[in-house]
Here is the input.
Amino acid sequence: MIGCHCPVCSSTDKRDQRTRCSILVSYCGKSVLVDTTPELRLQAIANKVDLIHAVVFTHGHADHIFGLDDVRRYNTLLGSPLPVYAAEATMRTLQQAFSYAFTQQTQTGVYRPELEPKIIDGPQEIFGVNWQAITLPHGRVSVLGFRIGNFAYCTDCAEIPAPARAMLQNLDTLIIDALRPRPHPTHLSFSQALAIIDDLKPRRAYFTHLSHDVSHQDIEHDLPANVRVAHDSMILEIPGASLP
Ligand SMILES: [Zn+2]
Ligand SMILES: [Zn+2]
Ligand SMILES: [Zn+2]
Here is the structure.
């Protein structure tokens, strides 16, 4: 956090250096980026994300969208427009925030992202694999969580309501919002996330979207063995990923 010198912000443990949250989902030779954070460019260079084939958005908050301009580099590398998947309200936010990228190209030579907008309004197939969109509450907005085979990603949510829980059974791996120990109006706290994990019983779960309240090591110290804390550059293999 800017201007903060707390033990977590000054920690030398790399896992405490938390940029904004995003994941890259790779299968069948394709890579799909979930959200474009303001640190996208630095994250892509640090993790050698040399190519992506599509972007999927969870919601339109600033910490999840403001790196979108930088995907223009992937247009160059890919030699084609980039499909961008989002719910209708999120797409509207993107079109307002990045109007220059969505309007008809008027000047030649303007280097901007070339996007192919695709609205998610139900089960979405991306490169032959079903991305089940799961609507989650996040204060005034709705967020999409995603289930892909036996893996699910649920960031930025204040609760996992019953219909969503029904879609999150029999998971191998769940990544779930867990902001901090104290309650927050639009995010899950550690204990709320743990109660949901206990109910859904994935084989393993990872906390994401952490604040600077507690160090990586101290959080993990108090967690059950099958619940860990995600960190920048973490790579997860999903065993037996039964992709439909
Ligand atoms: Zn701090
Ligand atoms: Zn948010
Ligand atoms: Zn967020």
Observations:
- Residues 61, 63-64, 156, 209 surround zinc ion (ligand 3) (CB under 6 Å).
- The chain has two domains: 21-121, 128-234.
- The mean pLDDT is 96.
